[in-house]
Amino acid sequence: MQKSNEKEPIREPQSQERPGIEKEMTPKPVAERTDEKGSGKLSDKVALISGGDSGIGKAVAILFAKEGADVAIMFLPQEEVDAQDTKQKIEAHGRKCLLLPGDITVEETTAQAVKQTVSEFGRIDILVNNAAMHWESKTLEEITTEQLTKTFTTNIFSMFWLTKAALPYMKEGSSIINTTSVTAYRGSASLIDYASTKGAIVSFTRSLAQNLVDRKIRVNGVAPGPIWTPLIASSFEPEKVAKHGSDVPMARAGEPAEVAPSYLFLASNDSSYITGQVLHPNGGEIVNG
Predict the structure, then answer these.
(1) Domain ranges of the chain
(2) What is the rounded CA–CA span in Å between residue 279 and residue 264?
């Protein structure tokens, strides 16, 4: 009999080219709990979400809309098909959705996204820094300077740029939520550069929270464990994709819809006494921090 802590295939092997398209995944990630109704926690708020076309970002965007927010989502142009699906689901909840295609590794793109969001909606109440990429490397020597630079620019530099551009339009009571990762706490032998950026995001979150506390803008983070998203299908070998999440205590990858409520909690007044903290929806992994 196979031990319960051994990795077993839990879905069929598959792969995609980066950045990955949610529509082509089998099974498709669950982006929304359709049996649950909204309760107006974000009534008439405005949210800007990077990487909001698919995966965790998509689930967050839909849940925010269900709770009453208008949403602007940033995404790579090649992810247009997923972005359009997200837009339809947001509008189905009676809210507006602004699509912002562009490359977040270009600082001007982040500034332009903020300008377009403010032009459309007048302000930004919630900023979700979520976009990220990773490449698997067996050794440190395999990580080229080009890859290292791309990983840091995508995952943490863009976060600085987007937050810096958005802050002038965020007022007392606003919320900033940064997506870090379980790898920031336990490391990853094959994702050294990615895990390093996620560690930087934890420090950025805690430091910015202290910096903005007098302005009464809260800054928190979410550190997901293995979640079923296009990033996974486009980053690993097919056999590894099939086993993704099988090594955590709950023995499966989480669905984006299971992570989104953490962002809702941090965006809403339910977390009014919380800043500089990180939530850990990770299938039962024990982490420090």
Answers:
(1) 22-279
(2) 12
pLDDT at position 5, please?
47
Contact 208, 251 (CB under 8 A): no
Q: Which of 169, 194, 263, 273 is catalytic?
A: 194
CATH code matching the domain that covers 22-279, chosen among 3.40.50.720, 2.60.40.10, 3.40.930.10, 1.10.260.40: 3.40.50.720
* pTM reported for the whole predicted model: 0.93
Q: 49 has which bridge partners?
A: 73, 128
Where are the strands (E) in 8-92, listed by range? Answer: 46-50, 70-75
- The model's confidence at residue 2, banded by pLDDT at 50, 70 and 90, is very low
Q: How many CB atoms lie within 10 A of CB 285?
A: 16
Residue 112 buriedness (CB in 10 A; 0-12 / 13-18 / 19+): middle
Cβ within 8 Å of residue 235, ≥6 positions away: 18, 20, 134, 135, 136
Is residue 194 part of the annotated active site? The answer reads yes
Per-residue pLDDT tens over the stretch 4-39:
445 556 788 888 787 878 878 888 899 999 999 999
pLDDT for 251 beyond 90? yes
Q: CA–CA separation, 269 vs 43, rounded Å?
A: 11
pLDDT, tens digit (0-9, with 9 covering 90-100), for 108-132: 999 999 999 999 999 999 999 999 9
Output helix, strand, coil percentages for the chain, rounded to the nearest 5: 45, 10, 45
Task: For residue 101, say if its preceding peptide bond is cis, omega within 30 degrees of 0.
Answer: no
Residue 77: pLDDT band with limits 50, 70, 90: very high
Q: Return the DSSP state at 120.
A: H
Ordered DSSP codes for 178-237: EE--THHHH--TT-HHHHHHHHHHHHHHHHHHHHHGGGT-EEEEE---SB-SHHHHTTS-
